User: Fold this.
Amino acid sequence: MAAMIAQELEAKQGFTYQVEDGVAVLVFDLPGESVNTLSPETGEVFASLLTRAEKDPTVKAVVFISGKKDSFVAGAKIDFLQTIKTAAEATVASRQGQQGFDQLDAFPKPVVAAIHGACLGGGLEWALACDYRIATDSPKTTLGLPEVQLGLIPGAGGTQRLPALIGVQAALDLILTGKNVKPSKAKKLGLVDEVVPTPILRQLAVRRARELAEGMLKVERPRGQGLKAVAQQGKKGLGGLLLGLTNKELWAEVALEDNPVGRKILFDQARKQLRKKTRGKYPAPERALEAVRIGVESGRAAGLEAEARFFGELVVSDVSKRLVEIFFATTALKKENGTANADVKPREVKKVGVLGGGLMGGGIAYVSSALQGVPVRVKDKDDAGVGRALKQVQGIYDERVKKRSLTWRESAAKMALVTGGTGYEGFKNVDLVIEAVFEDLALKHRIIGEVEAVTHADCIFASNTSSIPITELAKGSRRPEQVIGMHYFSPVHKMPLLEIITHKGTADWVTATCVEVGKKQGKTVIVVNDGPGFYTSRILAPYMNEAAHLLADGADIAELDKALVEFGFPVGPITLLDEVGIDVAQKVGPIMEAAFGKRMTAPRALEKVVAEGRLGRKNKKGFYTYDGKKKKEVDVTVYELLPHGKNRKQLDSREMAERCALQMVNEAVRCLGEGILRSARDGDVGAIFGLGFPPFLGGPFRYADSIGPGELLRRLEHFQDKYGERFTPAPSLVEMVKAGKTFYPR
Assistant:
C-alpha cells in the first residue's frame, strides 16, 4: 500500500525513476505545466526518491534531469508563496527548502544535475546542492537567481551556496541584480562544470555520474574562478560597479575576501552602491547582501538562519506583493491574443516592411530581425535615411557581439535579414508594414495609399504614431479593418512595452497577429482602444505638463527631477523632456489640448526655451549640459528663458512629486472609465513598462488602491482647489468612491 501511495505521489509531481548502468536517473516533468516549478510536495517526492536510490545497492550515483523540452526548473511555485499569510510561515517554508537541499548536499552518492532550459531561482539552488553540473549550449539554457526582481531573496540556501562556489563578489553580481547568465558565462564563473550539446546531455550526465562514483573524475574548482569571469566582463551591472577589476588585481581581490578588513570594505561599498541604486525603495537586495555578509563572517548556519528570516519578512512585504502582482499580470498577458475571442488565431508574418529610417524605424527593424527572426525591408525617402537605419541596426548587433551575447557569425546572419531602399521594391510579399514617419496625418494617408498599391490584399498596416488617432488613419485606407496602431517606445531594443491600438473596425485576426508579432519581438504587449494619445501618451501628457507648471512656479530643475526620482521614477520629468525632445513635447501639447480642453493646456513656460532652439539631447542643447562629462548638470543659462528667471523658489519636494504623479494616476483612471483601457491590470503594466511608473507601487491603479480611492479623491480635490481644473478628479473615481469600490477585488 505504501509503495502504491508513493508511486501516485511521484506521478502527480511528474517524477520517473530509472536505473541505467548503476546510475539512478530522476526525470522531473510536472504534469500539465509548460515549465517545472518547485513546491514543498515536489521536494518531498524528490527526497523519497533519493532515499530509494541510497538504499539500492545497485545504484552508485544519481542524475537529476528535466523531462521538459526547454525548461530545467524555473523556480519556486509563485502561487504557493501567495498562500502564505505571515512572515513566520514563510520563514518555515524557507527552512524546509534549506533542509531539503542540505540533505541533497550530504547525500552519500554523487548527484549530477543535467541542465537544459531555464534553471532559475529554486531551480538553480537545487542544482547548486548537486555535486556536478552539466548545462547544454542551447540559447534556451539560462541560469540565475532572479528573486530580487520579485522583491524576494533566494530562500533555499542560495545566498550561502553561491558565494561558497564562485566567490562573494561574483555571487553578489548575480544575486543583487537578479540577472541570468548563458551557459558559456556560467562555465567561466564556475557555476557549471561542463557545457555540452543538447543531444548528448543525458548520456554524458550518466557517464559523469558513474565516473564520479568510481573515482575516475575528480572535481577541481579553482579559487577565484567566478571572480575572474566577472572581471573579464568589465564594469557591467551592479556587480561590475562593485568590482571594477583588472586581471592584475584579481588575486589581490580573492585574498581580500578572506581578510576581515577587506570584507568590511567590500560589503560597505556594496551597500553604498545598493542604496544609490534602490534609494531604499526595494529592500530585497539589501537583505540578500546582509545574508551573504552574515554567512561569510559568522558561518553557514548563521547565514542560513538570516536568509530564512529575511525571506519570511520579504514574502509578506508590500513591495514583494506589488512585484509579484506585476509578474502575474505579464504572465497572463503572454497567454492572451488581445481580443475578446480567445479562439482567434494569429496569421503567420513571414516578412516585415518598415517605413522610416529614424531611431524608431531602425529599432523596429532590429527587433523584427533579431528576435522575431524574419526578413525586414526598410524604406526611407533618401539613401542617407536608409543608411542611417542600417547603421543603427548594425550598431545594436555590434554592441551585442561586444558583450558576447552574440557571435560575429550570428550577428552577420541576423544583419543579412535587413535590407533597405528608397522605393517600394521588396514590399510585394510583406505581411506587415510598420510605419514610423513624421507625425503628420496627410503624410500618413498618402503613405497608406502607396503601401496598399504595392502589397498583397491581406497585408496589415500598423502605425507607430504616438498621438494621431488610428480611426483617423484608417479613413485613408481601402482596407480599414487591417489598419492598427503599434506604438513602440524608444530605444526600441531596450524598452519592454508595445502598446497596440485598435479602432472599432480593426479585425480580430489583425489584432491577434500584431500581438503575436510583439511577443516574438520580446515585448510585453497591451491592447488599448483608440483615442487621442491612446493610453501611455495620454497619461504622460498631464504628468509632463505639471512639471512645466512647476518650472513656471519657479522650481529648481535638479530638485524637481530629484523629487520624482525619490518618488520612484527612473528619471525625472525634465531629464525625460530632454531625452524625448523638447520640440516633440511642444507638438503633442496642442493635440491633447484640442482633444481634452483646458485641463490639458500646456503652460507657456517653455515657449522661449523652444524658440531658442533647445531641443534636448539630440542637439546637445536643453535643460542639461551635454559636454561629454559623465555627470550631467543643469545648464543654468536656461533659467533666463523661464518665467522666474534666475529667481528660483524652494518648493516642497513631496508636493512636487505628488502633483506630477497624481496627474498621471488621475488620467489613467479617466482612460479606464472611458473604455480606452480594457482593465486596470493593462493600465498598470503599460505605465510601469512604458513610462517607468515605480514598480514597487504596482502601477497607477494598485497605487490608488493602496492609498484608497477615497484618499486619492481627497488629494485631487485639494490640488483642484489650489491649482484649478487640471486636477479635476476623474468622474469614474468619484462614482467609485460613492459606491465604496476599489480598482482590484479586495
Q: What stands out?
A: The longest helix spans residues 653-673.
